[in-house]
Design goal:
36% strand; alpha+beta; PH-domain like; 28% helix; two-stranded antiparallel ribbon; 162 residues; seven-stranded antiparallel beta sheet; 2 helices; single chain; 2 domains
């Protein structure tokens, strides 16, 4: 076999891989189509307890850090601004609709070391466990000020208990 034929085989193989990746992503979206859309951000999201910049890493099924949610704009990593208010969590991502998690839907916060395509130092990811229409989810963030976030989140959860 000469060089042009080998190149054609390699290119055909790469195109096949891209087609299979796309088909897999579409199949995941079809499987998750029954997941309800997150609530719209209310006109008055409440008093801000803190705003934290960083990266939105992923949203997965609860307890399954390799099962990415691919619907409603939750499937793509991006920069993010997470604002904790007295009524919930507002996640703003460029190029995506804002994500609103009402305080009543917030289940827990903890740290994580890895998810889908991200591995960091121990406790380097902030995980917010929440409920979307009866489906528990975990959203992962890599924030610049994790200590401030944890303090503000504790304040949010103490308001939830009241």
């Amino acid at each position: 076999m000469d060089r042009p034929q080998l190149m054609a085989i390699v290119i055909a193989f790469l195109v096949l891989l891209l087609v299979l990746m796309y088909a897999g992503w579409r199949a995941r979206q079809r499987r998750q189509r029954t997941l309800p859309a997150p609530l719209a951000v209310p006109p008055d999201p409440g008093v801000a307890l803190g705003t934290f910049d960083g990266k939105y890493v992923a949203t997965t099924a609860a307890g399954k850090p390799l099962e990415r949610i691919a619907v409603h704009g939750l499937g793509f990593r991006s920069t993010a601004s997470v604002t904790l208010t007295d009524t919930g969590v507002l996640v703003q991502r460029p190029g995506s609709d804002d994500l609103w998690i009402p305080r009543a839907a917030v289940l827990d916060r903890r740290t994580a070391t890895w998810t889908i395509d991200r591995v960091v130092e121990r406790g380097g990811l902030e995980l917010i466990a929440w409920d979307l229409g009866g489906t528990p989810l975990d959203s992962y963030f890599r924030l610049l000020d994790p200590v401030g976030f944890e303090t503000a989140f504790d304040s949010l959860m103490s308001r939830k208990a009241v």
